[in-house]
Amino acid sequence: MFTNLSVTSLTIDPANVTFHFDLYCFPFLGCQALDVAVTEFSMVQIGSCASPIVNSVANCPSMQMALVGNYSTTGVATASGVLDGTVASSVATRVQALPKSKLKLDQLTLSPMTIVPDPALLPAGVTALTITIAPAPGAFSMSGTYAVVNPSDLNGDGVVDAADLAILLSQWGGAGSADLDGNGDVGASDLAILLNAWS
Prior knowledge:
Layout: E1 4-7, E2 11-12, E3 23-26, E4 30-46, E5 49-54, E6 57-75, E7 79-98, E8 102-110, E9 113-115, E10 131-133, E11 141-145, H1 162-170, H2 188-196
Antiparallel strand pairs: 1-5, 2-4, 3-4, 4-6, 5-6, 6-7, 7-8, 8-11, 9-10
């Protein structure tokens, strides 16, 4: 069972993104729909995040993310620019240990993130544009093999079995990698350690 998760690098490049926007208000025109398109968008983790795993969930309540991309508006006003800001997002994921040293992360959730483009780059009459990104990566899943250092796994195949026992017996009475208790020679106490770790 895992007790902690540390994330040192996370980049999310959405392939299928839907953006929803509210109405924007203009002087004398009232509130109008302003369509905003975002392209080449990505979220990149800044720094690291470490979390205890509680009930199979790791949660980083304030992960710093850089939001990068391009935006353009159409409708009653047109503008374009670059998204380049840093925001904090609460990030959580389910952590599952699977057989044969496999690890799976899924059910990723990220809290909404808001970025405000530079007002100087907006068209005349538009004083502010707020883009809120509310990710819903429900299909997210990541899995892989993690390295477990088990000193009784003498041949490094991920299990303690007859092959490891054969190595231990071949080194019986002398020094070698099967000296699991570190007393200088391979003997009964090393055999007991290996059998206790049997897969």
